[in-house]
Each structure stands twice: as structure tokens, then as C-alpha cells.
Amino acid sequence: MPRDESNHESGETANDVDDSVTDELFLELDDSLVREGMAANADEIQIPETTGWNPDTIETDYLNRGSFDEVYTELFPRIYNHVTFEIGRLGMKAELAGEVLQIASRKAHDNWDSYTQGTYALAWFKKIVTNTCFNLRRQEWTRENRLVTTPDLALLLDNAGFRTPSAEKMAIERIREEEIRAMFDLLPDPFRAATKAVVLDGMRTDEAAELLSIPAATVLTQVHRGRARLRSMITEQREKEREI
Amino acid sequence: MDTNRDCGCASAFGRIEALVDGHLRTTETVDVIDHCASCESCAQELDIVSTLTERVKTACFEAPPAGMCDEILNSLKSNP
Question: From residue A106, how far is each of A88, B56, B64, B78 by CA, in Å?
């Protein structure tokens, strides 16, 4: 399974990071500094009123040199990854990935010259993708014509009030993605299968139970144990690193 | 916050994973969220479980379909 190294958890908001400072920090290629969620509003991007330019010939001069096509192609797997992440986070239908990509790619393509030279192109693309997802989500709410008495789950979890510092959380945030994948592969088969079905594939408990031919209660137990095992492995690794 | 709604630690803590996995109804979600707003330990558990879940999802993400990148680039050029 191809994978990338992006990190979606920043915990920072637009108010936390000054733009001028952020641009400098992006030069260090640290994905954790990419602002996410409501804080990552692509409307912040300045779009010029005049368009006397050709996106295909404009080159960046620092991290992602080349035309739009070259940079986009290089970053595409990670852009796609961000689309699927945001769609999952916002509870949108998975089949919207193509539509999100089309809209976001069009916006990025048509505004390529507003990408600030010398900054991190992936962050710029991510902002546009996130903004596109939020706009589509809002449109869905409007179409559903229902009162949103409680914000969507993903938006609730974005609430800074629920982002509390803890040693375990820091360990989870800092661990490398290849390490997470290795730990996931180390889970005992029943835990891994249930966790994959529920967490990665987004199945309901009854769907996972039918797929795995086990009772729904067992699915819940195995997912819980899978998570607990991952947390335990991450904590153990943190302790080992401290000893070194 | 309406403290009368507080479902208590035992109830909230046991439903945090279900909440993060999107398996709770709206009313149950409100119960858990309201409790976490006033309970640091449950809020921390919610934060840890959601962070872990997001990181696992990201680390094990699905690769884009073959040819999708080229298709989008071609569509951008054919429909300027």
C-alpha cells in the first residue's frame, strides 16, 4: 500500500501563527506547521484581479521548482491524501474525492501566481483543499435543510478546548508515520482486522461484524484493544527513546 | 453549559471511541462532548483517541487511483 509522510495534526490555529513567521517556518519542511481545519482558510490567499499570466510557465523559486504541472504532479499523492483525510474528517461521502480534487485543482491552477514564492507549496495546496471541503460540506448542510444544533463531529473535535497537552498525545504526534504503520502491522490479526475495518475503512460496527463473522460486541472489544495496543507500543517507544 | 446534561465520566469515557469512529447518534455525541467540556481527564482521552485515530488513518492512507493525476491535468488543459 503506497503511503506518504504527511502529518495532519498541527493543533495550531490561524491566530496562533503569524503569517510572516509561518512562511519562514515552512522552509523547514515541517508538515506539523501546516494549519488545518477552520484555521486553514484558502480565502486568505490573495488572488490577483488581473490574470495576464500562464500558470504553466510560472516557476517557483525555492522548494518546489517548476511549472504548475511539475509541482502538482510531484505533490499529487499527498494532495490526494489530504483530500481523503478531510473528507473523512468532515464525514463527507468518499466518492466526493474526485469532485473536491477537480475544484481545488482548478482553483490552484488558476491562481498559481498567487502562490508565494519561497514558501511550502504543499501547505498552499492543503489550504485550498481544506477550504474546498468545508465549502462543499456547508452546501450539503444547506441542501439537507436541517438545523445544525450541534456542529459536525469533525468540527467539534477541532475545537481547541478539546486539544489538551499531554505527554501521550505529544508522543503520538511525534512518532513517524512509518513507525505507526509498523506498529499497526504488529497488531494481532483479530485486532488489526477489526481496527482496519472500523478505523481505516470507516465501517459501522454491524458491517464490520458481518465482514469478520464475529459478534458486534467483539468488534468493539477488538478495536478497543487494537487502539490500546497501539498506545502501549507508542508509549514504550517513547520510553526507549528517553533512555537513549 | 447545562450541567444537568452531564452524563458523567463512566458513561462518557466508554463512548469516546464510538464518538471518534462516528458511531454515536447526535444526542449521544452532545452528551459526551458536553461532559468533556467540563472534565479534563475525559477531554484528554478524547483528544488522545482522536489524535491517534487521525494519525493511523493518515499513515495507512489509500493511494490515489492510477492515472487520476494525469486525468485531472488533462481536464484542466482541455477545459481552460
Answer: 22, 30, 18, 12
Residues with Cβ within 8 Å of residue A158, at least 6 apart in sequence: A36, A37, A38
Distance from the first to the final alpha carbon of chain A: 32
Name the B residues in 26-45 with CB < 8 Å from any A CB: 26, 29-30, 33, 36-37, 40, 43-44
Determine, for residues B47 and A163 on separate chains, whether the beta-carbon distance falls below 8 Å: yes
In this predicted complex, what is the ipTM?
0.77
Determine the 3-state secondary structure of A45 from DSSP. Answer: coil
For the domain B9-78, what is the CATH code?
A: 1.10.10
Inter-chain touch B54–A9, beta carbons under 8 Å: yes
Helix, strand, coil share of chain B (percent; to 5): 70, 0, 30
Which of B39, B45, B50, B75 is the best residue to mutate to test the A interface, defined by the most A CB atoms within 10 Å of its own CB? B50
The span from the CA of B78 to the CA of A164, in Å, is: 48
Q: What is the pLDDT of residues A185-202, one digit of tens each?
A: 999 999 999 999 999 888
In this structure, what are the phi and psi dihedrals at residue A195, rounded to the nearest 5 degrees? -65, -40
